[in-house]
Amino acid sequence: MIEFNADYFDGRSAERRAVRVRASDTHLHVSGQTVQVAHRIDETSVDTPLARLHRVLTLPDGTELHTADNAAIDALFGHRLPIATGLARLESLWSRALIALAVLGVCIWMLMVYGVPLLARPLAALVPVTVEQSLGRQALASLDGSLCKPSTLEAHELEHLRTLLGRVLVGLDQPQAITLEARNCKGIGPNAFALPGGTVLVTDALAHLGMSDETLSAVFAHEVGHIQRQHAMRMAVQTSLGALLVGTVMGDAASITSLAYTLPTVLLNSGYSRTMETEADEFAYERLREVGLSPSALGDALEALMRAHEKGEDSARQPSERWSDYLSSHPAVEERIRRARGGD
Tens digits of per-residue pLDDT, 42-85? Predict the structure, then answer.
């Protein structure tokens, strides 16, 4: 038989009355100087255990029993709250709590590194084109409001860039329209990247780098590869899933609301994964061959960008304003150059 001491509250006043509680097979028998009651155990509710806090039993008539005898309550009601009871035990032992916290951290890390990217591909494919285009427009607006100004390119220069992009797109089965935008982004430097929804953004600095038409076409082919494989959308999904996961753990769901405005920073600073870069390169090789150009042009483009980076084309920017250029968001550049030039 289970017995324990408790404080009895009748719900009508703050008066606390000391009682002794004895549990039979079906009832709780509460005895005290002015209290003699019995209530069914299966009609009594129990709160979730928290370390070092008294347990509260709510009896069927609304009265309450408060007790510090966790062992007795676990013996009576532990089957109702097996997980909560186990967590409360962990809370009472710091070493186990720290181990549990470490295990949780490893699980979250593995989910972020492996689970989130794995989920991002199928989820990105389910996003309607209109939603993806809207996200791309918001991301571009974010750049226009912070890092970029209207392009200073002449009309004929911009038209020429669009012609080169059109050449890359000839005969391509496109799930969405692909367009080109140019911006004067001194804080970014020579750069080109694909936004969700089919926009290839080119900086004036890239257009003025002196690349040949074939080399610029290779840059466009690579960015079209990102669009065709929905890499920007997958990055957006990964970012939102990661923010949702962190928000769930940290209790800050608001962190996912600024996705459209943080996406450009994610693309510039973090870049794409090695797998995504390889996919975009492979697409570019095939596309260049299909339009009569050499895949080695992509290697030439990467080398030109690497030289520009090494020479400090963006040295006029303040250190706090220096954003990653086209190369720094693309891993293993030398390896990619060798692969492109060996793909003829």
Answer: 899 888 766 567 889 999 999 999 999 988 888 888 766 655 45
Among 271, 285, 265, CA closest to 336:
285
- Give the residues across from 19 on adjacent strands: 6, 32
- Interatomic CA distance for residues 121 and 234, integer angstroms: 6
Structural domains present in the chain = 2-91 (2.30.29.30), 108-341 (no CATH)
CA distances from 77 to 70, 201, 334 (A): 10, 62, 65
CA distance 332 to 322: 21
The radius of gyration of the chain from alpha carbons, rounded to an integer in Å, stands at 32
Indicate the pTM of the whole model.
0.61
Report d(CA 235, CA 166) in Å as an integer.
26
